[in-house]
Specification:
The structure holds 2 protein chains of 2 kinds.
Chain A: E1 5-11, H1 21-35, E2 40-45, H2 57-76, E3 81-85, H3 92-98, E4 103-105, H4 106-117, E5 121-125, H5 130-141, E6 147-152, H6 157-162, H7 164-180, E7 186-189, H8 192-195, H9 200-207, E8 211-212, H10 214-228
Parallel strand pairs in A: 1-2, 1-3, 3-4, 5-6, 5-7, 7-8
Helix pairs in contact in A: 2-3, 4-10
Chain B: E1 2-7, H1 17-31, E2 38-42, H2 53-70, E3 76-81, H3 89-95, E4 100-101, H4 103-111, E5 118-122, H5 128-137, E6 144-149, H6 161-177, E7 183-186, H7 189-192, H8 197-204, E8 208-209, H9 211-225
Parallel strand pairs in B: 1-2, 1-3, 3-4, 5-6, 5-7, 7-8
Helix pairs in contact in B: 4-9
The chains are: A alpha/beta, B alpha/beta.
Chain lengths: 246, 250
């Protein structure tokens, strides 16, 4: 039998500590297991400390050390690939500096995927303050020309799961605006809390444009890179020299 | 259920022949998650190789017609255009609803996730501008370190693999040292199928991407995600109604 691909699915938030967090983690574990290939094995890693959701640069900064340390350990334990489960990709380049195995950014990989299947994509986000953050991300990636807009549903990350139906309606409304007013022909779900809810197909059917689910996109990128025996360039993400961190 | 890899030229009738077509099919099967799905075809009405804009444009309609013909006896789930110029990518996407993979487009987008800057190795110096235009069209100019040409014709690349390897290695060293690229792409499918990527990757210390293999992974990923190109971006040409292939989404 072939050796299984060992995927680390790294949460950036202390999800387990939030209200109904354990239940939500179980749900996500199911979703992940239903979406990996038969030759893959996935392990969830959820920080014990840190923010319950990531909605600001501050949240992100607090979350990053947890992500990096866990990914470094996972490589030592024999994992083949790590996925950072947050659309803002906290700790992505720092982790890539520290490990040789591929590290997938859920946001980054979704954006590059969107750029391949249409002329103009929009991101659907929880809060309107995500917009500035995403704008910066797009310019650092260099895909400004294909980026239409970020449309928010004005719902905090933790409230998305609380009222699923209402969130779905708001996402569809935001998607309509992105298509009709901003000219988008591809949509990206810009938050893991949206992506884990089995609503991608519903939105696609309703709005008739491809909708990218960052969870699925990250899983497939992870499996593809491992299968191709390709990882990030160490010339681009050189391993930091050993030095004392006081 | 199949993933069609379509060589947009007459490989069977050319100097590489049907043997090369079968060899590529074998390699794609080895690389795939599900070998039974892979089917490789060429275009009997096409040219021998694509090394200029003229040859690229001339390949498109015969290739689209060939894929249309194939849909009559193959249950096609996705198709990969077997040329790094992605000839007719937009045309294919207008005509078909199932995912159409341009190996250059998807390999470049993958390279951007492995490093900040990539370089392409193309065939002739006369093709540099075609490459620059392509990168620009995909919106990835800011990620391009350089394009360099190996100056060996497509139909001679596989004749002396040792010579081809040495020439590419020389270019690769310049690309890494002088152009500061962090990843290298084979800008030709024959180069991609030459089996040199891993050897060069080890030697050069940067990812070397084989567009055949990356293209296949993209096709498989699109199918797993039940994702295809946006028909809002690539609408079917209204006047060509009678050419419409009616294929229900599986």
């Amino acid at each position: 039998m072939k050796k299984k691909i060992k995927i680390l699915y790294q949460f950036a938030t202390a999800k387990g500590k939030t209200k109904n967090g354990e239940e939500e983690i179980k749900k996500r574990k199911n979703f992940l297991e239903n979406n990996i290939g038969s030759n893959s094995k996935i392990t969830l890693s959820v920080p014990k400390k840190g923010p319950g959701s990531i909605e600001t640069d501050y949240d992100e900064a607090i979350a990053i050390p947890n992500v990096i340390h866990s990914i470094i350990n996972a490589e030592k334990e024999g994992f083949d690939v790590a996925i950072i489960s947050c659309f803002s990709d906290p700790g992505l380049s720092a982790s890539r500096e520290k490990v040789k195995m591929p590290v997938i950014g859920s946001g980054e990989t979704s954006i590059y995927l969107a750029s391949q299947i249409g002329n103009a994509f929009s991101i659907l986000s929880p809060l309107s303050n995500n917009k500035e953050n995403f704008n910066r991300k797009i310019s650092s990636i260099g895909l400004e020309k294909k980026y239409c807009s970020t449309r928010s549903i004005n719902t905090s990350v933790l409230n998305i799961a609380k009222n699923k139906k209402q969130s779905l309606n708001k996402i569809i409304e935001a998607g309509k605006m992105a298509i009709n007013e901003d000219g988008a022909d591809v949509l990206i779900l810009g938050c893991m809390s949206m992506a884990f809810h089995n609503i991608t197909e519903i939105i696609e059917k309703k709005l008739k444009v491809p909708v990218i689910n960052p969870v699925k996109a990250s899983l497939l990128m992870a499996e593809s890179l491992v299968k191709m025996k390709i990882s990030h360039s160490k010339k681009a993400f050189p391993t930091p020299a050993d030095k004392i961190h006081y | 259920m199949s993933i069609v890899y379509l060589v947009p030229g007459n490989m069977t009738g050319g100097s590489y022949g049907i043997k090369e077509l079968k060899r590529r099919e074998k390699l794609l099967k080895e690389w795939s998650f599900d070998p039974s799905k892979i089917k490789v075809y060429d275009v009997p009405k096409g040219g021998s190789s694509i090394e200029s804009s003229y040859e690229e444009i001339a390949s498109i309609i015969p290739a689209v017609d060939r894929l249309t013909e194939l849909t009559k006896f193959e249950n096609i789930d996705a198709a990969i255009i077997g040329c790094f110029g992605d000839p007719g990518l937009d045309v294919f996407r207008e005509m078909f609803d199932f995912p159409i993979i341009g190996p250059a487009q998807t390999t470049m987008h993958t390279a951007c996730q492995l490093g900040h800057k990539f370089s392409l190795i193309t065939i002739f110096d006369s093709m540099l501008n075609m490459c620059f235009k392509q990168v620009h069209e995909y919106g990835l100019d800011s990620h391009l370190a350089s394009v360099r040409a190996v100056n060996i014709p497509v139909l001679e690349l596989l004749n002396d693999l040792n010579f081809t390897y040495k020439e590419i290695l020389k270019l690769g060293e310049k690309i890494v040292e002088e152009d500061r690229a962090e990843a290298i792409l084979f800008g030709c499918m024959t180069m991609s199928f030459a089996g040199l990527d891993k050897k060069l990757q080890d030697k050069l210390g940067v990812p070397v991407l084989n567009a055949g293999r990356v293209g296949l992974k993209a096709a498989e990923s699109f199918l797993s995600m039940d994702l295809s190109h946006s028909k809002r971006a690539y609408p079917f040409p209204a006047k060509l109604k009678n050419k419409k292939i009616n294929k229900k989404k599986a």
